[in-house]
Design brief:
Blueprint: H1 2-10, E1 13-17, H2 23-34, E2 38-44, H3 46-56, E3 64-67, H4 71-82, H5 91-98, H6 101-110, E4 116-119, H7 125-135, E5 146-152, E6 163-167, H8 177-195, E7 200-204, H9 215-230, E8 235-240, H10 242-246, H11 248-254, E9 267-269, H12 273-286, E10 290-297, E11 302-305, H13 312-330
């Protein structure tokens, strides 16, 4: 995390916080600002936010307040947004959204005034995804929003120095082959941007290279073919059982063909949310692994969701990771 903090501080990104009245979020913003990790913007009713900060003893020095009750500024932002060909709303709809902090922040992001939108402490994940999907849109080659995370497994030497990225454990319940391919592609891009690793991505199954036949296996194979066709630059392979994906000795016995991934995977893609959720909880509880995330992915720009129970330290860490991802995206 220290390396990521240094990377975030090297070129601070502009981050909008539409749940600005939340005390935990406000304290996280103050810490991010004082540490020089991000250029923070609180989006809400300006007078209310300043009053809350004073009441709580939180300094807003260096923090920009975007006042959604400022009608003149709202009109200027709305005019810029309406001039874009990808604006999905009419004038009345845009004007209405200018007064809503989450949608106001996302519109600013589309206009290039913000690099990251960060929410989730008082908003449902589904609401954030719906608003971001409509306003920000999906990235090229991606047809579904998903999530990924990174597990740090003590004493394990596989993956990438004991770290293993995974997707999707939180958003897509039962992805079809096209959606599963999107999850694999988006996870590769997210992990590469965040860590600098060369992705080696395994699509997991209960079968390795035809050891079993079922509709479940067919889905994973179809996803593999779609992912490889959409992004031939990425190393994505399957179908692989978990041990064949991460253990070279098992891969040598089960995978009798050349593979850049088998036995060396640093990213695994669960076939559905059941496997993903259970898998993460098993490694957390039995292997004492720390699991970071989930990080939303698949949007054209970086939009983040945090747990409603997230403490200040977790929000700061997630914002730092989001800023590093935004730096990489800006450098594309």
């Amino acid at each position: 995390m220290q390396t990521l903090r240094e990377r975030a501080a090297w070129r601070p990104q502009r981050v909008a916080f539409p749940e600005a009245d939340n005390e935990t979020m406000m304290r996280a913003v103050a810490e991010l600002t004082s540490a020089g990790l991000a250029e923070c913007m609180l989006v809400g009713k300006g007078e209310v936010l300043r009053g809350l900060a004073e009441e709580r003893g939180i300094s807003l020095a260096g923090v920009e307040v975007i006042d959604v009750s400022d009608e003149e500024e709202n009109a200027r932002v709305a005019a810029r947004y309406l001039a874009r060909p990808d604006c999905p709303y009419k004038a009345k709809g845009v004007a209405r959204r200018m007064t809503r902090p989450l949608e106001h922040a996302l519109i600013m992001q589309v206009l290039g005034d913000v690099d990251v939108t960060f929410a989730g402490i008082s908003s449902a994940t589904g609401d954030i995804i719906l608003a971001a999907q409509t306003i920000v849109g999906l990235d090229l080659g991606v047809d579904v929003v998903s999530s990924c995370g990174i597990a740090d497994v003590p004493g394990w030497e596989g993956g990438e120095g004991g770290l293993l990225a995974f997707g999707d454990s939180a958003v897509c319940v039962d992805p079809d082959p096209s959606e599963l391919a999107s999850i694999a592609i988006a996870t590769c891009d997210t992990v590469e941007a965040l860590t600098g690793w060369e992705p080696r991505c395994a699509l997991l199954s209960h079968s390795t290279d035809g050891s079993e036949e079922s509709n479940l296996v067919d889905k994973v194979r179809a996803a593999r073919d779609l992912a490889q066709g959409r992004r031939p630059d990425l190393k994505i392979d399957g179908e692989l059982q978990f041990d064949a994906a991460v253990r070279p000795d098992v891969a040598a016995k089960k995978v009798r063909r050349a593979s850049d991934v088998a036995g060396r995977a640093n990213i695994v893609i669960w076939p559905d949310i059941n496997v993903g959720n259970i898998g993460v909880k098993i490694i957390q509880n039995l292997a004492r692994a720390d699991a970071y995330g989930p990080m939303l992915q698949g949007f054209k720009k970086i939009v983040c969701d945090c747990s409603r129970s997230a403490p200040v330290s977790e929000i700061v860490g997630n914002v730092v990771m989001s800023c590093v991802r935004a730096q990489a995206r800006g450098a594309r």
